[in-house]
Structure formats: structure tokens, C-alpha cells
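C-alpha cells incoming
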């Protein structure tokens, strides 16, 4: 590796840093990585790729959430170039590459969007529940964090739309909805408890019972899980006299109010749960 290629890489690194305006230590640590490559005689084939890779690797090591696409947008290097070069640099310098932490990402985004502490706390808890259920496996931490915030924000009175959240996390709205569905499917009853902290334990168990029934019920075949989940929430809330906003539930799950009511009726009509006759349809 020539001295010239190192200098060019450092120039690219400075350009990236000036565009992103992160902590000064990121730039300094990135310079150290490039210098270490030089001292170990490791070849820099494409300085722009190496600079972008060292910058991203620095952010990962220092737990500063920055998406690779954000760096690619201000660098000649492509996303694939950066990721491949980061792996090469990490292997050469014997460095592990930690994944971005959804908790750190949520903290950063909530601060940038000036969201309330309540929304951030709720989003963090949703993310924790999903992690406990294994939903994070093989999923980008950014799309996962976006889905957690989407669910948390749906229950809040904010102007933040689905499109706003997708843009903030640099994910498509379709991907955001898919990850939301994965999260809700995995933590449906536990999220009910989080959403209604004063709900009696029987209500949470009732949601579990309804969802388990639907897993094997003939009527539930080919029905979207999100609709069944929302119907189960409405049924439990109605049965245990918990105030619930059907429109808010529709926003959270992406299911229409009419579908929620239809799945509610399905659950009422096809379950033999004791006390079903106490359900008051006038409340929906």
C-alpha cells in the first residue's frame, strides 16, 4: 500500500465526517484504523471504499447508529462496497463487527424527532419484548427499531406518520409494515398488557386463549393474523370493561375498523369461553 493511497483514503474520510457532523472522536478513530492498515502493510485497493468502511466500522464499535446507506449516499462507494470492505478491514485488524443496537437507535431517533419520554420508553419496551421472542433474528436493527417505534407511536397523539417513520429510518413503508406485523404476531398478548397496564391478568390470559383457539380453528384459516389479533384485543377489552379506541387499534395493526369488528364477531361466535354472554356489542 502506498502512502498516496492512505492520504486519499484520509481525504475521503474527512469528507464523510464533514457531511455527517458526528462526534470528533469518530473521525479520529477512523484515521487510526486507516493508519493501522498502513502500519501492517495491508493493501488499500480503493481508498473511497476503505474510508467509508473505516468510518462505518468506527460507528459500530463506538455504538453510534449510522446506516450504511447514509454513508453510501455521500461517498463514491456503494453499500455493497462498504460492507465488503468493512469485513475485510475487520478481519485484517482482528476486530469484531458488532451489530447496531436497536435500543441506541431508538434513543437517537426519539431525540431527533423530539418525541416524549413516554413514547421512547414504550418503544424500548416493545423492542425488548420482541427480542425476548426472537423477532430480531436476521432482521436489520434499523427496520426492527422502526417497527417498535411505529407500534409505540400508534397509541400516542402525535403527527408522526408511517411515512415519517419510514423516512427517518431509511426503510420502505412496505418493509416497515412487514416488521410491524412480525412484532405484533410475536408479542400480541404481552403487548396488550403493556398497552393496558391496569388490565387484570385474566384479560391478558383471555387474549392468549383467543389467539390459541384461532391457530387451529377452521374459520380462522386464510384470515390475516393482524385482524385476528385486533379482534382478540377488542373482545378482551370489551369483556373486561377496558376502554379501547377501535380507530387507534386499526392504526396500530394496519387493519380496518370493519375487519376488526368482523374478527371480533368471529371470535365471539366461535369460542365457548365462559362468560361470553357478558359481551356487549353496543360498545364496539
Amino acid at each position: 500500500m502506498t502512502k498516496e493511497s492512505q492520504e486519499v483514503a484520509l481525504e475521503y474520510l474527512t469528507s464523510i465526517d464533514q457531511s455527517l457532523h458526528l462526534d470528533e472522536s469518530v473521525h479520529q478513530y477512523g484515521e487510526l484504523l486507516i493508519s493501522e492498515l498502513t502500519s501492517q502493510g495491508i493493501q488499500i485497493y480503493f481508498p473511497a471504499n476503505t474510508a467509508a468502511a473505516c468510518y462505518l466500522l468506527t460507528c459500530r464499535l463506538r455504538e453510534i447508529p449510522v446506516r450504511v446507506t447514509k454513508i453510501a449516499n455521500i461517498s463514491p462507494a456503494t453499500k455493497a462496497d462498504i460492507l465488503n470492505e468493512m469485513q475485510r478491514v475487520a478481519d485484517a485488524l482482528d476486530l469484531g463487527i458488532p451489530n447496531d443496537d436497536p435500543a441506541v437507535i431508538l434513543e437517537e431517533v426519539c431525540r431527533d424527532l423530539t418525541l416524549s419520554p413516554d413514547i421512547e420508553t414504550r418503544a424500548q419496551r416493545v423492542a425488548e419484548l420482541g427480542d425476548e421472542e426472537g423477532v430480531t433474528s436476521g432482521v436489520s436493527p434499523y427496520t426492527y427499531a422502526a417497527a417498535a417505534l411505529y407500534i409505540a407511536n400508534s397509541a400516542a397523539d402525535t403527527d408522526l406518520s408511517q411515512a415519517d417513520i419510514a423516512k427517518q429510518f431509511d426503510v420502505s413503508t412496505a418493509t416497515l409494515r412487514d416488521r410491524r406485523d412480525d412484532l405484533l404476531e410475536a408479542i400480541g398478548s404481552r403487548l396488550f398488557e403493556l398497552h393496558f397496564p391496569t388490565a387484570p391478568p385474566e384479560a391478558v390470559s383471555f387474549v392468549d386463549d383467543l389467539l390459541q383457539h384461532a391457530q387451529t380453528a377452521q374459520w380462522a384459516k386464510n384470515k390475516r393474523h393482524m385482524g385476528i389479533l385486533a379482534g382478540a384485543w377488542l373482545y378482551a377489552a370489551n369483556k373486561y370493561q377496558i376502554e379501547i379506541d377501535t380507530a387507534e387499534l386499526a392504526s396500530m395493526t394496519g387493519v380496518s375498523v370493519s375487519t376488526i369488528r368482523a374478527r371480533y364477531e368471529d371470535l365471539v361466535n366461535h369460542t365457548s369461553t365462559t362468560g361470553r354472554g357478558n359481551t356487549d356489542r353496543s360498545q364496539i
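note: The CA atoms of residues 103 and 124 lie 6 Å apart.
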